[in-house]
């Protein structure tokens, strides 16, 4: 019997989501089944914005940023009523299983559906890289590359003016984007929620650098710690550091996905369909080392704040960028 599989993207978009949607659609059709694209995340699901996808519908999407299915934040999905509306729509379209591409919040929705008896599999799609059970999420690599490109440019002007730059990067409560961007750009300071910071120490390190003839200081600040403007105030309270704040913001969420994100998304998409084919539900795909793995959504969500950040990068940076 032909199976009908639905796919949606939810939460913040992430470069590589299209590559995942394409892989899912192609694999489902290759298997002789039908694929249905759900627009606008859980909101579109509850409202029945559902359309069958053909092979051609996903052509020329692999290299594009954003999500061709659009996405939304839909708090109503936390409530039973929102979830029941969604299940009713899935039944109306005869869809028998669902793939959710999104972050931790979206995983909660996927878990709720699978607990309600609707077969659902998750794919980690978020620039934040804040999901336990996977080394990387789709979009994280591209976001770091975008941030790195910006910091390289900021360094030019920071040097010319002998300024200190505070660069606020995204990541919600996780410091991964800051850690990778910081080490990758040779930033003198990386401030993340996972580690305490000491403003006196930061100021003394900036002073030591200046005395040595250093022409700039780059501070990468994870948004989960505080806003750039607040950090600037604290820094300026200790002296004139010619500080400037750059908030990279949503630019980090756009752009053509990197090679790594395209490959990761394609493999994750393929694997999610395979998991559904094997009758699995309530699980999510991930990568650990070179292995493509899957974990129970409940375990991953219980991990919550136990997401393993790359704190080793923080320690290395302290000894090579100063
Ligand atoms: N506890 C929950 N139960 C059911 N659904 C949820 C829950 N939390 C979040 N969702 C659904 O998932 C959507 C996306 O969640 P959220 O805004 O946290 O983004 P995310 O998936 O974590 O992605 P990102 O952090 O990258 O933006 C929410 O708008 C809501 O529809
Ligand atoms: O796009 P919004 O709703 O402003 O959300 C921004 C948040 O989404 C993320 O970009 C993740 O998608 C976080 O890094 C950030 O905190
Ligand atoms: Mg999230």
Automatic annotation (TrEMBL):
Reaction(s) catalysed by this chain's protein: beta-D-fructose 6-phosphate + ATP = beta-D-fructose 1,6-bisphosphate + ADP + H(+)
GO-annotated biological processes: canonical glycolysis; fructose 1,6-bisphosphate metabolic process; fructose 6-phosphate metabolic process
Molecular function terms from GO: 6-phosphofructokinase activity; AMP binding; ATP binding; fructose-6-phosphate binding; identical protein binding; metal ion binding; monosaccharide binding
Activity regulation info: Allosterically activated by ADP and other diphosphonucleosides, and allosterically inhibited by phosphoenolpyruvate.
Binding residue positions for Mg(2+): 104
Keyword Membrane: no
Associated pathway: Carbohydrate degradation; glycolysis; D-glyceraldehyde 3-phosphate and glycerone phosphate from D-glucose: step 3/4
Active-site residues (renumbered): 128
Residues binding substrate: 126-128, 163, 170-172, 223, 244, 250-253
One GO cellular component term noted in the UniProt record for this chain: 6-phosphofructokinase complex
Phosphofructokinase domain span: 4-276
Entry's EC annotation: 2.7.1.11
Keyword vocabulary terms for this entry: Allosteric enzyme, ATP-binding, Cytoplasm, Glycolysis, Kinase, Magnesium, Metal-binding, Nucleotide-binding, Transferase
Record-given protein name: ATP-dependent 6-phosphofructokinase
Organism: Aerococcus kribbianus
């Amino acid at each position: 019997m032909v199976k009908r599989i639905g796919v949606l993207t939810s939460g913040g978009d992430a470069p590589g989501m299209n590559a995942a949607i394409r892989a899912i659609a192609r694999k489902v059709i290759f298997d002789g089944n039908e694929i249905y694209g759900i627009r606008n995340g859980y909101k579109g699901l509850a409202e029945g914005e559902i359309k069958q996808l053909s092979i051609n519908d996903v052509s020329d999407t692999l290299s594009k940023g954003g999500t061709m299915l659009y996405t939304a934040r839909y708090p109503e999905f936390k409530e039973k009523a929102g979830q029941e509306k969604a299940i009713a729509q899935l039944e109306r379209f005869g869809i028998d299983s669902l793939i959710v591409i999104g972050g931790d919040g979206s995983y909660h929705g996927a878990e709720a559906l699978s607990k309600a008896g609707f077969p659902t599999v998750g794919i980690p799609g978020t620039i934040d890289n804040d999901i336990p059970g996977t080394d990387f999420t789709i979009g994280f690599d591209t976001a770091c590359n975008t941030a790195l490109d910006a910091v390289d440019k900021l360094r030019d002007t920071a040097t010319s003016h002998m300024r200190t730059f505070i660069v606020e990067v995204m990541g919600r409560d996780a410091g991964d984007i800051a850690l990778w961007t910081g080490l990758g750009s040779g930033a003198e300071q990386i401030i993340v929620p996972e580690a305490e910071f000491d403003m006196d120490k930061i100021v003394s390190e900036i002073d030591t650098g200046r005395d040595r003839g250093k022409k700039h200081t780059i501070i990468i600040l994870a948004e989960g710690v505080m806003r750039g403007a607040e950090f600037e105030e604290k820094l300026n309270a200790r002296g004139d550091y010619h500080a400037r704040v750059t908030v990279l913001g949503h630019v980090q969420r756009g752009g053509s996905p990197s090679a790594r994100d395209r490959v990761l998304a394609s493999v994750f998409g393929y694997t999610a369909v395979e998991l559904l084919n094997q009758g699995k539900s309530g699980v999510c795909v991930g990568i650990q080392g070179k292995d493509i793995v899957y974990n129970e959504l409940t375990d991953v969500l219980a991990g919550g704040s136990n997401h393993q950040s790359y704190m080793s990068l923080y320690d290395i940076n302290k000894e090579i960028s100063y």
